Amino acid sequence: MNSTKILIVEDEKDIRCSLSELLRKACYQTIEATNGRSALDIFSPGIDLVILDVMLPDMSGFDVCSAIREKSTVPVLFLTAMGSEADIIHGLEVGGDDYLKKPFLAGELMARINSLFRRSRFYNAAPHDKKESFLFCGPLKLSLDRNYCENNGLSVQLTDTEYCILRLLLKRKGDPLSPRYIYEQVWNEPFLDNSANTVMVHIRSLRRKLELDPHHPKLIQTAWAKGYMISKKEKA
């Protein structure tokens, strides 16, 4: 068993135990919480990923995710029966990286978890034997080698998904990128009906963190009927 720790926040015992058994068979360490308060008490920098139910007995999983986001960019996967488009959008807006509806297939769950870990490990690794490279757009500075962002000289905390999207937009600065292209490049999964909404919510979150006026963005622009882009004119 490796040292990777996954926090499972689920009040239904059968589901929680099944998840824990599945993950242990995949050589992950698991920590279990039955409600939101205990999850926040347990959470620490040693947790590598959180699987989070929404309908918890004491507080909403959305509120738990918001609290975690105040101190960490750890990947958060919502796993819940609340699968409406509004629920999914809200889950992503509060900082979730992905959203999987119950009932789920074990293979799909493991694919989502492995994808989140690949992004997290690759983009959070500090550079070792080479000089760190950066992308720039006006006062915005983004590392090409790890999840590190500065805007106007101040560090900006991005989730791994937000970082991947921003990195892609900066590398293709001046080119409008469709939601399909962004989704398939970042998630490495086929584009589905609700995938455009997933991309839109993460773009909205990036704008809140980077734009002076998120409702009138100058950095991450919408190219009508084409997608999203960062202009070559450095107006950030």
Describe this structure in words.
This protein has 236 residues and is α/β, with parallel strands linked by helices. The chain contains eight helices and eleven strands. It has helices at 13-25, 36-42, 61-69, 85-93, 106-124, 160-171, 179-187, 195-210; strands at 5-9, 29-33, 49-52, 76-80, 98-101, 134-137, 140-143, 149-151, 154-155, 220-223, 227-230. The strands form three sheets. It has a five-stranded parallel sheet with strand order 2-1-3-4-5, with helices on both faces. A four-stranded antiparallel sheet has the order 6-7-8-9, covered by helices on one side. α4 runs parallel beside α8 and α7 crosses α8 (195-210).
Summarize the topology:
Elements: E1 5-9, H1 13-25, E2 29-33, H2 36-42, E3 49-52, H3 61-69, E4 76-80, H4 85-93, E5 98-101, H5 106-124, E6 134-137, E7 140-143, E8 149-151, E9 154-155, H6 160-171, H7 179-187, H8 195-210, E10 220-223, E11 227-230
Parallel strand pairs: 1-2, 1-3, 3-4, 4-5
Antiparallel strand pairs: 6-7, 7-8, 8-9, 10-11
Helix pairs in contact: 2-3, 4-8, 5-6, 6-7, 6-8, 7-8
Order of helices and strands: EHEHEHEHEHEEEEHHHEE
Count all strands and give the number. 11
Mean pLDDT score, rounded?
A: 89
> What percentage of amino acids are in beta strands?
15-25%
Overall body shape: globular
Uncertain runs: none
Helix/strand class? alpha/beta
What multimeric state do the chains show? single chain
Radius of gyration: 18 Å
Record the strand order, biggest sheet: 2-1-3-4-5
Q: Kindly, what is the distance between the CA atoms of the first and last residues, rounded to a whole number of angstroms?
A: 46 Å
- What is the count of helical runs? 8
Question: Percentage of helical residues?
Answer: 25-40%
Q: How many strands, what sense, and barrel or not for the largest sheet?
A: 5 strands, parallel
